[in-house]
Model the fold of this input.
Amino acid sequence: MKNLITWVVVAMLLPIPVVAQQSTQSPQSPQDSSAMEQRIKDLEERIIALEGQVRMLKATPAAAPAQPSPVPGGATAQPQVATAVPAQAQVPAEAAPGALPVYGGASASAKALNPDISVIGDFIGKAGGNSVQPTPSLEMHESEIGLQAIIDPYARGDFFISFGESGVNLEEGYITFTALPAGIVAKVGKMRSAFGKVNMMHNHVLPWVDRPLVTNNLAGGEDGIDDAGVSISRIIPAPKGLFLEATGQVFRGDSGEDDSPLFHASRNSDVSAVAHLRSYADITESTNIDIGLSYARGHNELGTDFLTQLYGIDATLRWKPLRRSIYHSFVGRGEFIWSQRQQVPTEQRAFGFYTSADYQLGRRWFLGGRYDLSDRSRFANLTDKGGSVVLTYWPSEFSQIRGQYRHFSYADNLSANELFMQVIFSLGAHGAHPF
Amino acid sequence: MRIRFGFVVLVALGFLPGAFFSSTPAQAKKLNVITATTDMAALTQEVGGDRITVESIAKGYQDPHFVEAKPSFLLKLRQADLLITVGLQLEIGWLPPLITQSGNPRIQIGANGYLDASQFAEILDIPTGPVTRAMGDVHPLGNPHYWLDPENGRRVAKGIAGKLGELDPTNASYFQEKFQDFDKRLTTAKQKWDADMKPYHGRKVVTYHNSLPNFAKHFGLNVIGYVEPRPGIPPTPSHTIELIGLMKHENCKIVMVEPYFDLKTPNSIAAQTGAQVVKYLPSVGGEKDVTDYFKLFDYDIALPTKAFQATQ
Done:
């Protein structure tokens, strides 16, 4: 990098003697001064072009194309710029983005190659008792570290490591191959599976403090279906304006909470699979609808002969007027999940859902509600239900304060009234989440 | 076991036959260019003429920092031969996941069909010291609203013409001719704009967001403050009072506001300082009849000059 900066400085200084010589040789005539003005302007252009190239080099060294782009005139742009200056000022310094060789610069550019690092803190305080789903009164619920970078022109890597107050969990860590033929996008690693909507979301992007009852009862709890495996997805050609995407995933077969797993691989061949079909359409430029079908299949903790299958439908209606997009928006959502669990003595067929609505009142305020109802996967005749009201405040894009009142009435004739307070704060460059 | 695993693989790959129906873009066809914003689309249209198709993801009346990464944009991106971005992290909140999910190797960051237009432009407000979020949502690489200087428009158009020629060599000379033509028309138009703005050289203005430094530099306006206390942070009462005091002290009579911001605070500031609120357009397409790069400046110069006259 140092070398490069030297080049830039040399390139900037070279013209000075040329200009100086000229001005001493002849007395000022209008022609000369306009020619000089033109020359200075050209030099200015050249400096702006050079600054741009320096910025590009600093910003995306990892992303520099593997094959140099063909520059008319052959030679690399660096010597071209240096030699062109004394010659004639009107020679355009053709910018060759990304084609510059990077000289030396071990320390400076090494820093630029670091991944984007972010930390997201999630603090939850609670008042009220709940004997069925107990949670502590004050808790640093999760600290999620994100490390994200472009690996090479063909792939990017994303790691999300979540720390509880004790213990660490690799929430996600995967490579995404972005340059495969036929429009296929493949992911390899540990990831949240594409089953429905909530399962894909990290805690800090949920519109609530907690996760819906149906997630806890049927779909693996807070971690959800989050496993090591391979994912392949592709956009399917569809009639104009309709977006269709199919995703197929194969995992090791271990998901859910340790004490009551959703899927469990007793043998290596007990892999689990998830399939998801997503359809999306813009109704108007501010309103759109998103409907997904999901299927998941795996073996449960009773052994290889016991399957658990999940079927899901999710629907989301979003509204966001483009001219006032930072002030008002609405999201209505529902997810419906059917669980079919083989166990002794009989198979349990359970159903559960949530529906929710969130309205953005102003630039910083959001009001939302959620209704929950779900059977329990192991005892399908037991049904829990409840509801929540949520108010969220955003001091800025990088922090949020949320209050949630939740009432649950559990099947065992127990009920719980709880008040949650949550603070989420984000440090560093956290990449955008999928829509 | 074999049967079970076969089933799983089937589930995973069952949709792959769809791959065979996919249309691979023919090289002989027109270049399909997708841009992040309408301004880049307008400049691309100028130099690409009828030998390309171009479409913008964001609308001109939308805040380009907060575009939703809608899946329908993926349909456009997967067919694109070239993606042109404004860069300087303007689109960081929404474009990267779209690029990743597009499944289009041509437009991945670093690939030949990805063009960050900021490399051609003169960039202002590059922070020199350490950058922290206490400064609000600052852009650590410099101010991304650079297209509002016609000279930068010229530079970017030239860069785009070069890129188009690189991707479609048979039309390279056509793109260069189109650029030369644009260059000439821009020079003529710029003379008029410069002349229109000349009487107001050095006039003080307040803007809502810091999106006018390049415009202000080119046309000699003096931006003395912002309605936002920090970039991206909504107005606060204490900052508003401070700003009103500053405007009175500096005798500043113009508040320039982008169309996607709420007018409540600017209006109350104007009421208390005797200033005028000018709704300027940061982008092509901000109003229906502002359809190209020239009309953007026509619009953005007509309004403040009128306001300057009125508040003389």
The longest helix of chain A spans residues 30-59.
